[in-house]
């Protein structure tokens, strides 16, 4: 390898820049997490110190667990995210299979129609969506959110999955047809398992925006029993602004599940992002 | 024989996706645009044509808010383009360096803010920048710049830029990842050919890599544009629906929310809300069209 690309000075400069930016990226998260375990006095006296035996306190978490219904919020977020992902993947894969596998009149047009939603945000239609949910009685139910997120996720899912399904070998499918498998069996038993990596990519792409969304929970399901974790922590923090222990603990409780999920899925997510799925 | 019978399975495969997508996304989109042409008079919905848009653009009270939100939104976008995307490209360029150690670790760490919700990000920064808590001023004091501190989120002249920078902090991971992916596809032979001609280091980046990743920069630009022009959550989480101080952080998303739902003494007005949504739709459409027809088709793509 050439000298200029490996010289030690460059190497130090590169690590320096990356470490600096990593610190900038992690600092706020770190400050919030450590201070959530401290007494009120310690939070203000030494905000950057780690909690020690003297300053350690769980008072904030106690307030949060007593006052807020965080388990319910968490459960709602989980239901909405999992159900939306399930429908996005199932419906998206089915439509992608139809577009990739069969030649029929209007195939290209259908593909374009479904791709429209990649660039146009669903939020533009909020006024009419709310009106529709009120008319159908779905407002303040988790179904309203699941439907919206499913519709929001479908365009990109169909686009990415159909690209992958075109790569599944025709011989394999034709062999299955000769063996008398129905088209449905070919899809569910042959093609779906083969595109599992692409499905995982679509899932992690959709997971973060759904889990973190504030707009639709605020508008479609603001009732106490349907609040998601994002909306729940927003409302809770708004009410407890002056109780720093509670605010910091609530923030930490909202950060931790996402962080855990990220540690589990980060490899998948980064592979998905860098596999050139977005072209 | 195949052709004679209707292939029902195609319809079955397509139906659920098309049905959900059409009823929950496309239909409400057009219905919202239609609602913008109506107004409520004496509890009844009446057709008023383009009256709402005239109010929005020319009525002094409305137009002042609208242009303020639009202008703020443009500034929000400009900050992202000038700060987020160059930092993202720079980080990606460093990360893609061959044989850099701990690259995966840096990549994962720098991406962490992107996975957090706006609510967390908004409040976390609000606390850190808060003069009551004093983390920001004491850190500035540490480097001897304490005089620079101001309650940035509370000052009209700084609040919007501060929020834009917070949003940059949150989303730098996305351009970083996409550019990183693009840089990885550049074949080693091209870089080696450059080296033979004496092009290395920085000039290799400017003269060889950058032209090759221009299409990806185009994509992150349009993603940034669409994302910024329907942004809402961060401003709402940090500054509330009133987008204070004195509307200085109001963008189209918060303006639409306030108009649609009402706030304090003003009643919500779905029709004016729809008109603002129509305006957002037009802006995003224009942006996407400029990208698709003006930029993407003219960009030179190199066979690699």
UniProtKB/TrEMBL annotation, chain A:
Per the record, a Pfam family?
Answer: BPD_transp_1
Xref: Gene3D superfamilies: MetI-like
- Cross-referenced SUPFAM superfamilies, in alphabetical order? MetI-like
Presence of keyword Lipoprotein: no
TM spans (from-to): 12-34, 78-100, 112-130, 142-165, 186-208, 246-265
Q: Where in the cell is it found?
A: Cell membrane
The way it spans or sits in the membrane comes to: Multi-pass membrane protein
Keywords for this entry?
Answer: Cell membrane, Membrane, Transmembrane, Transmembrane helix, Transport
The question of whether Membrane is a record keyword is answered with: yes
Q: Which residues form the ABC transmembrane type-1 domain?
A: 74-265
Q: Which domain of life is it from?
A: Bacteria
Family, similarity comment: Belongs to the binding-protein-dependent transport system permease family.
Name of the protein this chain belongs to: Carbohydrate ABC transporter permease
Q: What is the lineage of its organism?
A: Bacteria, Pseudomonadati, Pseudomonadota, Alphaproteobacteria, Rhodobacterales
